[in-house]
Amino acid sequence: MKYFKFLMLVLLSVVAISCTDDFDEINTSETGFTADEVSAKFFLTSAQVRLYAPDRFPYWRAHLIHSDRFAGHFTFGHNASWWSDGLSYSYNGGYTDATYNWLANHFGQIKGFADLTTVGGEFENQYMYAMAQIMKGLYFQMYTDTFGMVPYSEAGIDGILTPVYDAQKDIYKGIIAELDAAMATIGDAEKTGVGVDDAGSNDIYCGGDLQQWKRLANTLKLRIGMRALGSPGDDFASAAINSALSAPLLDESTGSVVMKKDFVISEWASASYGDMWHDFGTGGAANWTMGATLINTLKDSNDPRLAAYAIPAKGGSFAFTDDDSDPNFQQRLDFTIAALDASSADYTVTVNDNVTTLDVPAGQYIGQPTRTNGDTYPFMRYDMFSLPSGAVTHKRGTQVDAYPEIILTSAESYFLQAEAAVRGMGSGDANSLFQSGIREAMKLWNVSGDDYIANEDLADISVGTMDEKLEKIAIQRWLVSYTDGFEAWAVVRDTGYPAELAAGVSNPTIFELGTLNGAYPQRLRYGSNAQANPNYSAAISAQGPDEQATKLWFAQ
């Protein structure tokens, strides 16, 4: 029976792709597939890919419109853009639904792989099942940190069509329990099996290396423990942290867990930033600029990642005419000039009657302020600001060294250990761990951090108050999460840093206050499909209003 089901799946897959000579050969073969030719590993890759690189529809809406911009890394709202940078700060059900549907539905792929590999499954394999448990942990951490209470304990259980929404505290505890079980199963094993049972290259996270999976699981456990620490009613974080610190974590010898992107397959199977960058015409209408908070942080600390993250602004001569149609013209012009000053930009100002001209030489890194409104839109000139680097906006089909999708980095592992040490947990030296994290972060973008560590205050936590040290760690975690907007956004909500992002905005002349009334977004609203579950009302009653401003448990 197992053989027959697998054969049907393979035949359906082949038919869906094309009618080829290979299909004819399969169709006429008297033997078909043998036992040593079938494995659950053939169902692994798709479950991995779409968690971090879904197709273009959610990649555009979930990543670019929401998390990357809430993280302060990217901005819209320049004068060539289709939107002001207030987009998504004012609730849009269609964009939220795209994010919710992608995340809510992806669990089915992970569960499918788990069902194949569990005890009694079609391709029972305890080590692949442990991988499925760890993938489930990665998934639910992202899912709950985006929406808060979500179905967890009853998710995917046969016969339960309307699962309960679990409290975030309980989801965290459940994830940690499953991570512990997975790590115990792996033990000292190195591979999932031999021959066709070796996940190998089908595993695009860890290449079939079970010990790397174990370190990934333990580092995720540490992340969740540190995120939960001090939240209301926390009764597990300290134990989880201490347990994680006593076991192997991602480090300089193992490197980070990242997913190399496939730029050959269709963007409707797996997308990248470059698909949006190049697919929506010319002139910058759908392109985005670099956030001022990110650019200024990198520039102010002489961070060598600046040239890897961004490219210099094109520059030019920018004329602003006060024709009396905008009563707040001068305030908005002053704001634009202040943004140049904040980026330490070189420029000249010329005033001729009612026309003010800003001449901004090319070749400078200048960030665009976050969350500007539609009235400020004409003052945010596209050529005035830096754009993402070519590694980020690569064009599909071109041979380039593009950024990998971040799963979990060795840099974050060190930063979490450094934070634990600052808080009096573990036995490591906080500053040494912190600087190891910076070196690992630089490796992701092929730059050296030695001069940065030797000379920059942002790279040193050997002195200062506890709060000052924690701020530097948080900012480094936020910096290393560039292109991982969901995690960068979570860092801001959890730590309050960078403070200028976490503070939100208050000036309606310049900024889009939106449905948040200026507050920093703390979550996404549930998608419209969630409301069909009768347990939705109980979740709202327990967690708070279904609004972007409602703080999640970990951020309280």
UniProtKB/TrEMBL annotation:
Tell me yes or no: is Ribosomal protein among this UniProt entry's keywords.
Answer: no
Among Pfam families, the record links this protein to:
SusD-like_2 (PF12771)
Alphabetically list the UniProt keywords.
Lipoprotein, Signal
Highest taxon, organism lineage: Bacteria
Q: Which residues form the signal peptide?
A: 1-18
> Which PROSITE patterns does this entry report, sorted A to Z?
PROKAR_LIPOPROTEIN
Protein name stated in the entry: SusD/RagB family nutrient-binding outer membrane lipoprotein
